[in-house]
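Minutes, project huddle
Topic: does the predicted pose make sense with (4S)-4,5-diaminopentanoic acid bound?
PN asked that the exact inputs be recorded in the minutes so nobody has to dig through chat later. Recorded below.
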Amino acid sequence: MFKKSQQLYNKGLVNLVGAVNSPVRAFASVGGNPLFIKKAKGSTITDVDNNTYVDLVLSYGPMILGHRHKKVQKAITKALKKGYSFGASTKNEIKLAKIVCDAFPGMDKVRFVNSGTEAVLSGIRLARAYTGKDKIIKFAGCYHGHQDALLVAAGSGLATLSLPGSKGVPEGAVKNTLIANYNDLESVKAHFDNHNDIAAVIIEPVAGNMGVVTPQDNFLKELKAYINSRGALLIVDEVMTGFRSKFGGAQEVLGVEADITCLGKVIGGGFPVGAYGARNEIMQMVAPLGGMYQAGTLSGNPIAMAAGISTLTELKQQNPYQKFNEIAQIFEGFLLESAKKYGVDITVNRFGSMLNPFFTNKKVTNFKEAQTSDTKKYATFFWEMIKNGVFLPPSQFEAWFLSSALTQKDIEKVAKAIDKSMEKVAKVAVES
Ligand code: HOZ
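Predicted holo structure (tokens), as shared on screen:
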């Protein structure tokens, strides 16, 4: 079933690190070798062995309209005919900036970069420049890209590979990083009691890199009010949730306004784009207006801008958010029902178009609780889903994503796959 993928994997090992360009793709925690992808269309993705799957990875979020949406493809093709990179300004940068700023009330100006990692590292520099303070609080299990200062107690690939941090990060780079617990305001307050030089708190408003973990009650609102009263800024990392939870991101759903918002994924429609933005008085700090330096030759790339504009325009028109909630609820129902049927302990977390099961009987409200999930069961579940035609992230600590291209047939396929996979999880648990 995976013969060609296997061959490519062996070939890839020669000149690529682990035959992949991002560690989560290596299938390290689910076993087996990575699948190599040939193409994707709409709600599905096809590997080099011609196995076609319902895609619930969606490039970890960006393909919210499904793959190769007609209008997006048309916009990209049109842009390609005019040139690929100019190192100079274009009209479309202004157009995308307006769409983004209009969606986030707390954002007067935005700066485009090339990835979520870049967006966050720039957002942090901006918070430090604005407040004149050095320390940053991050939450255990949140992942904000691979910059030195934030590779501590991080989710995503580090959680997948059980790494507490990264080698090669000097002590000095993380000495200003403090760790708090998700959904635990007291753990944030404790840091403020001990430090008077905290510039910002950075958070995924809905965590998606320790699996999906949602903020409880008024956690975000209370967090913002408290840290602002202590002179620190709230950086909301909406790289995953921006335009995905709602057009105005998780901030719109949760009724919170970030001081600095970081974006990525969806805003490039599948091309490499990130962005950070804030109100004028904060963005004033950024060069050329102010003294905080941040730059990028390829930033605002014309193809990425065209893909972003058409994706967001179509998304706004489709307004699929109600549909996303309904499908996520249906998937949750399938998971809970089959788990009950086969006697498997699971907890399902979901928020809008992001969800995933944890193989634990505990509630999952933070990283520690996420880590109670039986990752061996996830591995069994993952491979059975693959065999039954559903492409999931190869890690317990990544979210499943929905696209607006999902059809009734896809939903039925996912339902059958879940039932079979849960049966297999129960069977393997009995055997071992
Ligand atoms: N959770 C990661 C993105 N936020 C997965 C993608 C990757 O690291 O390759």
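Observations noted during the meeting:
- Residues 408-431 form the longest helix (24 residues).
- The mean pLDDT is 97.
No decisions taken; revisit at the next huddle.
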